[in-house]
Amino acid sequence: MPLPEVQAMLDLSFAIGHHLLVFGLAGVLCAELIAVRRGMDQAAVARVAAVDLWYGILAGLILIIGFARATMAAKGWAYYSHNGFFWAKIVTFVLVGLLSAPPTIAYIGWRRADATPSDAQVAGVRRFLYLEVALFALLPAFAAAMARGYGQF
Asked: What is the mean pLDDT of the chain?
């Protein structure tokens, strides 16, 4: 394959991988929101902790593929680094990640205590999950605007 075709295939591969990972993360976040509810027993806590582990794995892979895409794919770093929507997307992704820390800490604590979480504890974790979902919903809007050239500075 000539070099431009290789570059195009690399760009396509990064885009597909990045999108699949983001959709996977959205699914995992929704699964957590559904699974964390009043009346959880230790088996439910173990399941949600396993789902949360996938949350972290997918988020890490999104960062790796996203960075590779921004630096090595067709548009390159010069395009992304001068785009306000790119930076809004990065900041939002970081905020979602920070909001995911309290639920993760809660799941670890619930497993270590070998006790069922109280309704108040569950409600507290669900508040963080709802905030994550709300912010996560901004990511596709920022990505769509960025992909169409809006936000260049």
From this structure: 95
